[in-house]
């Protein structure tokens, strides 16, 4: 099931995979380096020197791969946000049912936030500072997630359909929550918000009863499996 | 570091710099006989407005004290008489805009027709504020950079204040929330939503969103 999900996700979101040549490996390292530098120093504080401290390699080589620090950030952003999109879609497809898919996607997202906070900070917070093409990539990713979330509309009778902008609203709430814990430097706290965010998603589309159930189910899941999911102990 | 205040210190409504009075770009040059404390207050207010304008224009990546001073019509040395650095000014602008937004909602809820749902009144007032002050709205909704962590803290305070208002707006049955964090999530989502609308099509049509926004905010608490 997992390999099928992976294949379906890759087909749905074509992602440019980096080849394995030494030069490509260095370029890949520089892209990770720029995200780490931006995540740890802020977009305004990052520099090519800082990127190279994370990635290794030489300044000349960096400029063979990228026109500027901004260009490197934009390319790194697109690569990482596309990969994250695929991973979320894989997790969602592998789950059974809309609510379970939403939760599986959130769990995968929160794993990234807790495992790679500096990269997450670059992807979710500092991109707003950077603006430009990276922000356009961000907005496109938000739109894809909104469409995926909105897929539940197909199962709802017309009279129960939520307002049109519900998807954008819910995705905005999820992102704001992530930004908040990253800004506070309390990434483990994101797991405490999982039941509330499930309540928000379920309630916004399906109403109070579904929201309360999603909240309780998610709380029970965290009580049973939080360390295994990657959320540590409370 | 600028002190983070929860309580507004707006001057009385009939003062020279009361809310709604447009600020002239700069005071007349030379001997004008205006008391020094009023000149100082006027400069500070211009700097706060200029900070929001500069952020809307250049974003956090490009904003500088030079640009803020230029927009406020003061020298950079005057800027530094008021604020220790760029982020102190941004924080002060954030807190001032937060206070104005909360005051607008509180007044609207307090003065609304008894037949009107306070939630409707609050949402309409919030959207009217956002439409009238798009620069301030973007300042309030944007996520601050790493260097400006105090703004992130101020944002959390604002979200909590608005969430408490949302609970009050829903009425007494919602006063003891079972899910204390949910309203904060709803407010966070609202900010992102409104900011994306301003970026996409300007602020002119924001008022039209009121019924939809009220429906979205109520839905998680309503039976299907």
Question: Could you characterize what this model shows?
Answer:
- Chain A has 234 residues and is mostly helical.
- Chain A is built from eleven helices and no strands.
- Chain A is elongated and about 60 Å long.
- Chain B has 224 residues and is an all-alpha fold.
- Helices cover 63% and strands 0% of the residues of chain B.
- The longest helix of chain B is centred in the first third of the chain and has 27 residues.
- Classes of the chains: A mainly alpha (234), B mainly alpha (224).
- At the A-B interface, helix 7, helix 9, helix 10 and helix 11 of A face helix 1, helix 7, helix 8 and helix 9 of B.
Could you give a quick summary of the protein structure above?
In chain A, 76% of the residues lie in helices and 0% in strands. Chain A has 11 helices and no strands.
Which secondary structure elements does this structure contain, and how are they paired or packed?
The complex is a heterodimer of chains A (234) and B (224).
Chain A: H1 2-12, H2 22-41, H3 48-55, H4 59-65, H5 69-94, H6 98-115, H7 117-130, H8 132-150, H9 166-184, H10 194-206, H11 208-229
Helix pairs in contact in A: 1-5, 2-3, 2-5, 2-7, 5-6, 5-7, 5-8, 6-7, 6-10, 7-8, 7-9, 8-9, 9-10, 10-11
Chain B: H1 36-62, H2 65-72, H3 76-82, H4 86-111, H5 118-132, H6 134-141, H7 149-170, H8 182-201, H9 210-218
Helix pairs in contact in B: 1-2, 1-4, 1-6, 4-5, 4-6, 4-7, 5-6, 5-7, 5-9, 6-8, 7-8
* Radius of gyration of chain B from CA coordinates: 19 Å
Q: Number of DSSP helices of chain A?
A: 11
Name the beta content range of chain B: under 5%
What characteristic shape of chain A results from the CA principal axes?
A: elongated
User: For the terminal residues of chain B, how far apart are their CA atoms?
Assistant: 49 Å
Helix/strand-derived category of chain B reads mainly alpha
Could you tell me the strand content of chain A as a percent range? under 5%
Computed structural class of chain A: mainly alpha
Biggest β-sheet description of chain A:
none
Q: Any idea what the shape of chain B is?
A: elongated
DSSP strand count of chain B: 0
Mean pLDDT of chain A, rounded to whole units? 88
């Amino acid at each position: 099931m997992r390999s099928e999900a992976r294949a379906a996700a890759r087909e749905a979101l074509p992602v440019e995979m980096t080849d394995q040549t030494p030069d490509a490996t260095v370029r890949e390292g520089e892209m990770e380096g720029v995200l780490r530098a931006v995540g740890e120093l802020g977009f305004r504080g990052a520099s090519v020197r800082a990127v190279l401290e994370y990635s290794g390699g030489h300044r000349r080589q960096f400029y063979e791969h990228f026109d500027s620090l901004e260009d490197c950030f934009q390319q790194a952003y697109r690569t990482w946000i596309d990969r994250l999109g695929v991973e979320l879609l894989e997790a969602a497809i592998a789950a059974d049912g809309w609510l379970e898919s939403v939760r599986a996607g959130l769990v995968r997202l929160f794993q990234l936030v807790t495992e790679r906070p500096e990269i997450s900070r670059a992807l979710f917070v500092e991109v707003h500072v950077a603006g430009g093409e990276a922000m356009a990539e961000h907005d496109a990713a938000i739109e894809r997630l909104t469409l995926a979330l909105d897929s539940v509309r197909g199962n709802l009778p017309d009279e129960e359909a939520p307002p049109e902008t519900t998807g954008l609203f819910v995705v905005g709430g999820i992102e704001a929550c992530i930004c908040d814990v990253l800004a506070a430097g309390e990434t483990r706290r994101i797991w405490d918000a999982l039941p509330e965010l499930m309540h928000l998603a379920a309630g916004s589309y399906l109403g109070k009863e579904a929201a309360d159930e999603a909240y309780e189910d998610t709380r029970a899941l965290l009580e049973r499996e939080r360390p295994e999911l990657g959320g540590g102990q409370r | 570091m600028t002190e983070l205040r929860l309580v507004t210190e707006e001057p009385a409504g009939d003062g020279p710099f009361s809310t709604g009075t447009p600020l002239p770009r700069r005071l007349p040059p030379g001997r004008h006989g205006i008391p020094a404390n009023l000149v100082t207050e006027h400069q500070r207010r211009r700097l706060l407005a200029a900070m929001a304008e500069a952020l809307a224009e250049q974003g956090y990546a490009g904003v500088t004290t030079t640009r803020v001073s230029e927009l406020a019509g003061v020298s950079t040395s005057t800027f530094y008489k008021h604020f220790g650095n760029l982020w102190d000014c941004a924080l002060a602008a954030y807190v001032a805009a937060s206070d104005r937004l909360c005051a607008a909602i509180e007044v609207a809820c307090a003065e609304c027709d008894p037949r009107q749902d306070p939630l409707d009144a609050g949402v309409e007032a919030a959207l009217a504020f956002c439409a009238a002050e798009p620069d301030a709205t973007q300042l309030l909704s944007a996520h601050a950079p790493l260097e400006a962590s105090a703004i992130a803290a101020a944002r959390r305070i604002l979200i909590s204040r608005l969430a408490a208002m949302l609970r009050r707006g829903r009425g007494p049955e919602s006063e003891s929330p079972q899910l204390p964090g949910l309203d904060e999530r709803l407010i966070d989502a609202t900010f992102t939503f409104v900011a994306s609308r301003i970026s996409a099509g300007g602020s002119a049509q924001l008022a039209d969103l009121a019924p939809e926004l009220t429906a979205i905010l109520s839905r998680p608490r309503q039976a299907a």
